[in-house]
Write a structure and sequence with these properties.
With 251 residues, this protein is α/β, with parallel strands linked by helices. The protein contains eight helices and seven strands. Bound molecules: NADPH dihydro-nicotinamide-adenine-dinucleotide phosphate (NDP).
Length: 251
Amino acid sequence: MNRVALITGASRGLGKDMALRLAQTGCDIIITYQTKLEEANGVVDQVKQLGQKATTLQFDVGDIKGFDGFVDKLQAVLNKKFGTEKLDILINNAGVGATIPIAQVTEEDFDRLVNIHFKGVYFLTQKLLPYLNDDGHIINISSGTTRFANPGYSVYASAKSAIETFTRYLAKEVGARGITANVLAPGAIETDFNGATIRNNPQIKAMIAANTALGRVGQAEDIGGIIAFLCSPDAKWINGQRIEATGGVFL
Ligand code: NDP
C-alpha cells in the first residue's frame, strides 16, 4: 500500500514541488488549494504521470471553523480514492506573505496572518492526528525570517516562530506513536509568494543573492527534495528539529 501525503497549498510554489518529489518516492498525494483549482488540477496530472494517485481538496487554513467540514471531506476522499482511512504524511505548507511595518499593522492584519500561519496550522494538525498513521511524518513550513529580521515581517515571522515551538511540543507528544515532527525553514524563494516580491524586484533579489553563500535566491525546486528526504526512512532519527534551507543566507 502506498503512503498518502496531504500537502496544504500545493497548487503552486513550494507545495507543488513537494508534491512532485514525494510522488517520485512512491507517495500518493492530496493537494489542497485555496482558489486556484486549475493549477491544483495541473499538479494532480503531473503526479499521475509519475504513476501515483492524486486528488485536490479546497481548503482555507485561516477558516478554522471550517476544519470539521474539511476533515469530513478528507475522510471521504481517503476512503473512496485512496482505499485507506488514514494519512502517512502531513505537510503544513499553505501560507501568504505581507510586508507591513510594525507601526502600520492593524488588528485585522495581525489576526489574518496569525490564523493562517499559527492557529490554523495548530488546529488542523490537532484535528488530523487521529487520521495520521503511526510512524508517519509531520512537517511544518517556517521561514528563515525567524532567525534574521526582515523589516515588515514582524507578524508573519512571529507566527512562524510559534510554529517552531509548537513543532517541538508536537514531536514530544506524538513520539510514542513513532511519528516525527520537524520544521523546514526556507529562505527567499522565487515563487508567487507575497506578490512575487523576489521575482518582481531585481534589487531585492540581488541583495539576497549577494548575502547568500551559494550566490543566488532559492527556487521551488530547491525545497521538495528536502521534504521527500525528511519523510524517508533514512531521516527517521531527525525529530523535533528546525532545518533551514536558505543556501546559506546571512551566515
Ligand atoms: P505561493 O504563493 O507560491 O503558494 C501559496 C500556496 O498556499 C498556494 O497553493 C495557495 O493556494 C495556498 N494558500 C494561500 N493562502 C491560503 C489559505 N488561506 N488557505 C489555504 N491555502 C492557501 O507561496 P510559496 O510556495 O512560496 O510558500 C509556501 C510556504 O512557504 C508558505 O508557508 C510560506 O510562508 C513559506 N515560505 C516561503 C518563502 C518564499 O520566499 N517563497 C520563504 C520561506 C517560507 P492557491 O494557489 O489556491 O491560491
